[in-house]
Amino acid sequence: MSLVQLKTELRQELKLTPQLLQSMEVLQMTSQELLEYISRQTEENPLLDQSDTPERAYEELRQQASWIDGGVGRATFAHEDAALAEPGRADRDLESLSAFLRDQLERQRLPKPLLALSVYLAELVDEDGYLAQEDVNGLSELNIPRELTGRALEQLQSLDPPGVGARSLSECLVLQLKRRGETNQAALDIAARFLPELGRKHYGAIAQKLGLSVSEVKAAEKIISSLEPHPGRAFQPAEPAVYVRPDVFVAELEGELRVILNEYYLPRVSVNDYYVRLMKESDEKETRDYLRQKLQQAKWLLGSLERRGGTLRRCAEAILEAQRPFFAGDTAALAPMTLSSLAERLELHTSTVSRAVRGKYLQCRQGTYPLRYFFSLPVSGGDASRQAVKHALLLLVRDEDPGRPLSDQRLCALLEAEGICVARRTVAKYRMELGIGSSAARKK
Questions:
Q1: pLDDT tens figures, 122-135
Q2: Pair type for strands 256-261 and 361-364
Q3: Which CATH number, 3.30.200.20, 1.10.10.60, 3.10.310.50, 3.40.190.10, labels domain 377-442?
Q4: pLDDT digit string (tens) for 134-193?
């Protein structure tokens, strides 16, 4: 019996060619990543020319929609981050909390063992000014006397800012109250023992356990709320500002809402005619092969850029069509829309749409939003999106009576009256996602 067989089979295969991989990579790039990628490609490929985009077209667009800010200016790249620091700029290492604590300790004439241990503890303080109990317990494993550890901890907690070196929020607040010389014993007791109950506004339970009146508990609450729960906050470096360059504009031009791609920040990329002629006229085979390869890479790049722009435009136009009442200013609520539904409408794969909107931003008259902001799942299979429910919830809480805040069940009923049918647990979930406290916590 022969083991060799002939078989005919028809099947489809998708092979990831270098051209397809490049197209996928370019599609999901953010504006800054795309700028850097084009810069690298023009440096590596002699057949690519890069020139500045005329600002005339951008200025004409600005005249029709003055709110547009496309971030058009000098391109900055990642390697420029290594530039020298601005003269006169403060050194954060010298202004850190640990350096501030060390300076105070060194000014005090402490015995060397106590000073060394206090400085060690100061180095363990986190950016909020707290000291982990595990770090203090670990000193016993180093055979350090417990008495010396207690003195060093006491020395650290006597420093500025008040409350530094605390091992818990309660200890931090108590340290601040004692530093103030606070005589309100109720504030001290509540800060030490009843912070969770105070956060939930359970004044009656606290008053009953401490033998106080509710008014005395509320007076103590005012004192405690004036304290700083993060003593090291002043030493934390400011978060760097994040600048967003919109990839798409939705503007009203000639009385109609339109999608405009923000390609004004991108340089114009073209193929160098000189090297194309050289490829045809050169007598050296190696030169012709090299230039032919680079020409193919240049065409791939130009094709990828064109496909990126076309896909991004189609996605933005579909978003505009689905959320037209929002862009027209008729409502602040979004209609339900998912990536899969948009992909089906555009006859694209869901992964393609996901890559197209990843890290991209849209600017309209209402502001600048991530493209993913406009995708919101429907709630309970209805016509309202999650964003719409949250927006309605915010409006209800904003307009409620502070003395009689709305419960989750009442919010559920009011939403149902507006045609939004959601369960009470869904209301509670969205309320917590919005950072809104319970009705007891909102009561004033």
A1: 999 999 999 998 88
A2: unpaired
A3: 1.10.10.60
A4: 888 888 888 888 899 999 999 999 999 999 999 999 999 999 999 998 788 999 999 999
Domain coordinates in residue numbering, the chain: 18-69+246-371, 97-235, 377-442
| pTM for the whole structure | 0.65
Under 8 Å CB-to-CB from 186, ≥6 apart: which residues? 210, 212, 216, 217, 219, 220
Tell me the mean pLDDT in the region 189-209. Answer: 90
Q: Tell me the angle at which helices 185-193 and 169-180 cross, rounded to the nearest 10 degrees.
A: 160
Rg, Å, the chain Cα set: 32
- b/e 167-193 (16+ beta carbons within 10 angstroms → b): bebbbbbbbbbeeeebebebbbbbbee
Query: DSSP strand E in 16-58: where?
Result: 48-51
Interval 84-93: pLDDT, tens: 444 444 445 5
Output the CA torsion 281→287→289→290 (10° steps).
-130
